From TrEMBL:
Its cofactor is pyridoxal 5'-phosphate. Its EC number is 2.5.1.160. It is an enzyme of class 2 (transferase). It catalyses: O-succinyl-L-homoserine + L-cysteine = L,L-cystathionine + succinate + H(+); O-phospho-L-homoserine + L-cysteine = L,L-cystathionine + phosphate. GO terms for cellular component: chloroplast. This is plant cystathionine gamma-synthase. The keyword Kinase does not apply. Pathway: Amino-acid biosynthesis; L-methionine biosynthesis via de novo pathway; L-cystathionine from O-succinyl-L-homoserine: step 1/1. It comes from the Eukaryota. One of its GO terms (molecular function) is pyridoxal phosphate binding. Keywords: Amino-acid biosynthesis, Methionine biosynthesis, Pyridoxal phosphate. The keyword Amino-acid biosynthesis applies.
Amino acid sequence: MAVLSCSFTLSPRVLNPYSSFECRPDPDFSTAPIGDKPRLASSRRVTASLSSLIFCFPPNFVRQLSIKARRNSSNIGVARIVAASWSNGPAPDSPFLAAAASAQAAAAAVNATATNDGAAVEGCIDNGSVQIGGSDNSTTTFLSSDGSITVHAGERLGRGIVTDAITTPVVNTATYFFKNTQELIDFKEKRRQSFKYGRYGNPTTVVAEEKISALEGAESTLIMASGMCASIVMLMTLVPAGGHMVSTTDCYRKTRMFIENFLPKMGISVTVIDPADVDGLEAALNKNKVSLFFTESPTNPFLRCVDIERVSKLCHSKGALVCIDGTFATPLNQKALALGADLVLHSATKFIGGHNDVLAGCISGPEKLITEIRTLHHILGGTLNPNAAYLIIRGMKTLHLRVQQQNSTALRMAQVLEAHPRVRRVYYPGLPSHPEHEIAKQQMTGFGGVVSFEVDGDLMTTIKFVDALKIPYIATSFGGCESMVDQPAIMSYWDLSQAERRKYGIEDNLVRFSFGVEDFEDLKADVLQALETI
């Protein structure tokens, strides 16, 4: 490593050059011989490599910077100007280095003890650019609830950035370096770990992926720039050219557009069935060599539910994979992998992020499948920015609190709407009137925060209702803290004629309402007053 040097002037009072920095703990050298204490002459211009002078830093700073994370000082909460050359062994006769080495040995002893107790962080991996600590997904062994997992998974027992900060730092870098060519060769021959380039990974992003994996009970998770990015990369990976897949009638329109308009260009044919048509699925499996069954559950916007366990067994018997888009359910309300699906996908923009301030998508499942998808992802791009990954991590810490409130509000509002004379029909899996209510009760612990319904009126009547609402924003998307409402005929299908919209079941009076975390009584009063205007 090249030696860093600097030139600076020290005043006579400078025994602790960073007197304004509150060190913890400050080493006590009162018992050291006077000759061993660091003394610097006043008003003297000094140019030094400082290999033998180590300033006071937090207790684990040696671990953070010693041979690994030299370039990540802004993420460690220490002064950014660190002019010091760190070596693997202390310089002779230096009390500062002796104290640092002693602290490092003590930390190592603590880590070793924790390892014996089964609760330690794995050994750090030197990747030459940022210190990568082995993460420990055994968090779930002592966290019994999803709520605790959303807060601590991927972080509490170790993460890819070794720091004593509670929050995961954001590592803003486009690429990673190697100290010498041998390190690069070791990386290429899989003897050492590195991300190499920002498109291939980032320590902050890995924390978000591990948190989602723990929540889904998955071996691996890949997070990308958006939910559509995750869907497209997954489809292009798992359905070969000339292959066949099965999907459902009710789904996000952009997903349908890709399946109908772009997959055929690769020679891929598609069978589209009703979400409840298991016989149609079986017929498609018998007639074609199906690679994949891909569906939302619940679906958008009618919240139809697929019997995940049943369709998974059926598809697996014919050699087909199953991927469930669980965005409307969230990982808290539904565990698609535990029900038998091979993969579960989310638009993390929605409930997982939860604050309407970040775009992201993720896909979770067995390591083998995720690795295949990751390989194509590295080629196509669609990389999540580490700042966005931080927002996902931050958002997930309140996921269980938000979803609990949204589940409760949506169910109660669905009941209110169903009983209202100005509402023709309500679509919500928590209602007994929903066609898949029994399926939803079996595979979901909550029914989500979105309710779709048809008001008693035409396009203009529905517009009047929507415009009379005072709390929700008229906006696309869902799952955030703020309530949002939209009229799908206008928001998503306005480029189609009324007859074309009806082919997809989209009537002019359909409303999709995403309930946020506002007080239930406030939302109820707002909806009721808006209904009174029509």
